[in-house]
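Ops channel
N.P.: pipeline sanity check, posting one input/output pair.
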């Protein structure tokens, strides 16, 4: 979050120009070689780093095409792996942060960066209100008209210990938040996808610890090792462009990816260990072990996030992910990201339909069957389709999509399919503005569906799973928004959402919502 891809491009271009000059001395040649190695190491460290801020603008992350002068003609470029030997002197991990209202802040920010410390503070606010009355009936007594607002302020701290104390390649990262407000979708009965994704998990405290971990960079940035309190869903099945939208079906990741309450999802974290390697410039592979804990989203366990003991650890998850990052087009200026992942979790979880005798636990009674393990697999991608002539490199049309499939015996959502189009800089003179449209389809797992069906047939609406008030089958969400770059560090995003089958229930009235999302980067 503290890096700029333009720095890498400018450094590489200058190095190439210097190499072509035949009048340089031997000393100048050695200096230029070292500078190039430093730029490569910095770029690799940036590409391997975790996503810290779900509100990162599209143009600050996606536009990472290499300089055209270094690319041979063709459809896309395959990149050779960088040299194994580390650079002679690694650059600082602390670089200029995202655009902020106070980029200098009375000299504090550049002074901290100079001494190996990066700090960023921002606010995200989301409002949504229903445009029609909720479903009425004997089982829907708590549904009501209304709107709501939710938000958070977050502080991110990164310390480069190589720069500060001479510990080569080691950095620490810490994120805290304070969250407020509630989400409006529950007013008309939906509990599957928050209309304000920023809601929840903050513990209603002034400071809630999200993550705190150390990360070691080896082989010139080609291999990273991290350990500490980490959010699994910030490291895996994640993308900085998911939060181009507001609904929780997309931001901060497709909801089916975080279906399990044992998966640490921002702002929750667990003890974890992660390894990430880049065998070639356009490919990374990562894996980790994340220890599953009871109640990571509950106030009684993790209200502040500073509970570090392992007394509530009940198992572990092992996620594995690979991502390919090609550049398509005749000029290789259409970057894409294609990732494939699998998660195995060794946690005892109740079957959503069967009892220990292999029958419906609701119809025939008995204890629910306990599954010793579960799994998840996913494919996600985003691809820039075109650039807008005469506009900045950040301008263009991007498509993202994906498919997540969960173990149907233990999941609420057995699969989700989603897709979105994002057009940045479409209007001349507004290069940072972005129009987006997204759609998500979520299928309720067969066991969950059949259990709710049996309960409704028996007239038993008390204690239904997932706050259901009827049979759950499938749910869809459509979202349309337009992000307005108000000024440096400030964006305002009018937003429209349309719920089809809220909470996966055909019996609930479809609901349209109107609202906005604002983002303010202070310093």
């Amino acid at each position: 979050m503290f890096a700029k891809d333009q720095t890498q491009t400018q450094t590489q271009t200058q190095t190439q120009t210097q190499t072509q000059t035949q009048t340089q001395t031997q000393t100048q040649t050695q200096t230029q070689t070292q500078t190039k190695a430093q730029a490569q190491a910095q770029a690799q460290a940036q590409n391997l780093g975790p996503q810290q801020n779900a509100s990162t603008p599209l143009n600050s992350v996606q536009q990472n095409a290499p300089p055209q002068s270094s690319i041979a003609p063709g459809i896309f470029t395959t990149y050779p792996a960088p040299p194994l030997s580390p650079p002679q002197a690694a650059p600082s991990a602390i670089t200029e942060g995202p655009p902020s209202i106070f980029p200098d802040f009375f000299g504090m920010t550049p002074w901290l960066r100079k001494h190996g410390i990066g700090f960023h503070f921002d606010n995200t606010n989301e409002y949504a209100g229903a445009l029609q009355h909720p479903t009425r009936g004997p089982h829907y007594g708590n549904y009501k008209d209304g709107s709501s607002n939710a938000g958070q302020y977050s502080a991110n701290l990164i310390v480069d210990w190589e720069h500060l104390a001479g510990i080569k390649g080691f950095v620490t990262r810490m994120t805290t938040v304070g969250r407020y407000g509630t989400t409006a979708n529950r007013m008309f009965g939906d509990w599957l996808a928050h209309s304000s994704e920023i809601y929840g998990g903050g513990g209603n405290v002034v400071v809630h610890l999200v993550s705190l971990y150390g990360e070691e960079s080896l082989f010139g940035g080609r291999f990273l090792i991290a350990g500490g309190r980490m959010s699994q869903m910030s490291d895996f099945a994640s993308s900085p462009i998911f939060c181009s939208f507001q609904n929780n079906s997309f931001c901060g990741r497709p909801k089916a990816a975080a279906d399990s309450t044992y998966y640490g999802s921002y702002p929750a974290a667990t003890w974890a260990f992660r390894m990430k390697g880049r065998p070639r410039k356009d490919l990374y592979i990562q894996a980790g072990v994340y220890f599953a804990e009871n109640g990571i989203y509950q106030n009684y366990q993790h209200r502040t996030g500073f509970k570090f003991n392992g007394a509530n650890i009940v198992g572990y998850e092992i996620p594995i992910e690979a991502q390919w990052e090609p550049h398509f087009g005749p000029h290789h200026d259409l970057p894409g990201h294609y990732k494939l992942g699998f998660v195995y979790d060794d946690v005892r979880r109740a079957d959503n339909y069967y009892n220990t005798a292999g029958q419906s636990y609701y119809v025939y009674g008995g204890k629910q069957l306990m599954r010793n393990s579960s799994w998840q697999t996913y494919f996600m991608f985003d691809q820039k389709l075109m650039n807008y002539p005469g506009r900045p490199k950040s301008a263009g049309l991007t498509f993202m999509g994906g498919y997540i499939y969960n173990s149907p015996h233990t999941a609420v959502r057995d699969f989700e399919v989603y897709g979105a189009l994002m057009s940045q800089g479409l209007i001349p003179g507004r290069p940072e503005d972005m129009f987006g449209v997204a759609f998500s389809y979520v299928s309720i797992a067969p066991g969950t569906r059949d259990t709710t069906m049996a309960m409704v047939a028996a007239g038993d609406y008390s204690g239904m799973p997932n706050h259901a008030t009827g049979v759950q089958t499938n749910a869809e969400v459509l979202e349309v928004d337009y992000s307005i770059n108000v000024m440096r560090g400030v964006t305002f995003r009018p937003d429209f959402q349309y719920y089809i089958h809220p909470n996966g229930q055909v019996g609930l009235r479809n609901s349209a919502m109107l609202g906005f999302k604002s983002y303010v980067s202070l310093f």
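N.P.: looks fine end to end. Helices lie at 5-20, 26-48, 108-114, 161-165, 232-235, 299-302, 361-364, 446-457.
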